UniProtKB/TrEMBL annotation:
GO terms for biological process: methylation; regulation of mitochondrial ATP synthesis coupled proton transport. It comes from Hemiprocne comata. This is F173A methyltransferase. Belongs to the ANT/ATPSC lysine N-methyltransferase family. The keyword Membrane does not apply. One of its GO terms (cellular component) is mitochondrion. One of its GO terms (molecular function) is protein-lysine N-methyltransferase activity.
Length: 162
């Protein structure tokens, strides 16, 4: 369980800037109030969906989508991120907690295609080399291209590419 902490407008803008000019299925793992999914859709990332367990946040996400004119165009699913198959995802957004990142890194490495990009907010994946980063302090986000992450892991058999 990761406590709900809404993303700031700058965090949202930074995360989506790192996904600019990309395409394909976009998911937000632990989508909270849905603001990242709605903005991803507005930016042209389709399909855009969020996985969230909290029913109140799912309701808030649906309301936010309706307010933005995206009702029926984005999806918010009550699913455990550990149980969903991410093999068809090309853009993954994660604003979670440091304790979740190590096991999540293993899941992402196992499931995502080489062409996928992961954007992490608040906390980076410490053993992954970022392809790019944007912002500073609490507004900072990191982008990881899975092909580069896998290449770095192969070059460092101990698992830590840095």
């Amino acid at each position: 369980q990761v406590p709900y902490q809404p993303s700031s407008p700058r965090q949202v803008a930074n995360a989506l800037a790192l996904l600019r000019e990309r395409s394909g299925k976009t998911v937000d793992l632990g989508s909270g109030d849905g603001r990242l999914v709605v903005e991803a859709y507005k930016q042209g990332l389709r399909p855009a969906l969020g996985y969230e367990l909290n029913p109140w946040l799912l309701w808030l996400s649906s309301y936010r989508a309706w307010q933005a004119g995206c009702h029926g165009k984005v999806s918010f699913l009550k699913k455990d991120l550990w149980k969903v198959n991410l093999s068809d995802c090309y853009n993954v957004i994660v604003f979670l907690a440091p304790s979740v990142n190590p096991p999540l890194a293993a899941k992402l490495l196992a499931e995502l295609p080489d062409e996928a990009r992961v954007v992490a907010g608040r906390f980076p994946f410490p053993s992954w080399p970022p392809s790019s980063t944007l912002g500073q302090g609490l507004e900072q986000v990191w982008a990881y291209d899975m092909k580069e992450v896998r290449r770095a892991a192969q070059n460092h058999p101990g698992g830590t590419p840095c």
